[in-house]
Amino acid sequence: MSAPTLPAALADATRDDASLRRFLHGLPGVDQVGVEARATALATRSIKKSSKLWAIDTAISMVDLTTLEGADTHGKVRALTAKARRPDPDRPDTPQVAAVCVYPDLVATAVEGLKGTDIGVASVATAFPSGRSSRQVKLADVALAVESGATEVDMVIDRGAFLEGRYGAVFEEIQAIKAACGTAHLKVILETGELVTYDNVRRASWLALLAGGDFIKTSTGKVSPAATLPVTHVMLQAVRDWFTATGELRGVKPAGGIRTTKDAIKYLVAVHEVAGEQWLTPELFRFGASSLLNDLLLQRRTQHDGHYSGPDYVAVD
């Protein structure tokens, strides 16, 4: 079992399956009451009116504008890329989003629509959302996305293997997908709603980081519960502790169920307080969302105009 370049103690943890198991089960347990209480307390914090516009613009810049439906069309993706480029056509100072996220067969359309911008093209892969397929099929899924121009790949871990304690198999699959990504960044979806415990979320987070994931992501958005603040706290702690141990910055992406500006600001507060201010950038924190952007744009207009504009003033996806 080969490992990425790591400090000796972490490299030793990936030497074989037994070492990996020993390391993951040796991580400190998560205090469920404590993490939930802290998440609740931070969620009640208010921010000054002068900071709210900054928070809204920061959140917009962190959005992975997403469409992952069986009925997706090339026309829908083209419309989504237009919205990504100019989220509010009447307000050209509105930030662009971080990326557009689509299925692999629609990546080329997204690439064409975003030509000339710095907006990323993300693609789900590895038999999304179930992850139930052979390694060969998963790698082919990634190859299709990358060859079509994806700059980011969102993979799903094999939750069945993880829950059975076959950590080595999950580790090796993430490594194989990372290698297949080439220069594309890899986001590793843990599907935390199926991991049952916070301890499992912490173990899965560290497993993904050890295997080379650039981001750890909560959910596919197809399973309930999806992103929650306590789970995101645990994942933020993991990337913070990873940075302390290695000096490497890795990102976090909550996805699913984050629909309002108020929700987004709660997550930004968590990022600042749990991981640190340097994570308040699209390079290290993303929102996987579709409807969130609309509310952010409405609230941005409210901040500028001093009155609520109403949903008719923002294009619906």
Automatic annotation (TrEMBL):
Its EC number is 4.1.2.4. Keywords: Lyase, Schiff base. Pathway: Carbohydrate degradation; 2-deoxy-D-ribose 1-phosphate degradation; D-glyceraldehyde 3-phosphate and acetaldehyde from 2-deoxy-alpha-D-ribose 1-phosphate: step 2/2. The gene is deoC. It catalyses: 2-deoxy-D-ribose 5-phosphate = D-glyceraldehyde 3-phosphate + acetaldehyde. This is Deoxyribose-phosphate aldolase. GO terms for molecular function: deoxyribose-phosphate aldolase activity. It holds the Pfam family DeoC. SMART domains: DeoC (SM01133). The keyword Transferase does not apply. Belongs to the DeoC/FbaB aldolase family. DeoC type 2 subfamily. InterPro entries: Aldolase_TIM, DeoC, DeoC/FbaB/LacD_aldolase. It is an enzyme of class 4 (lyase).
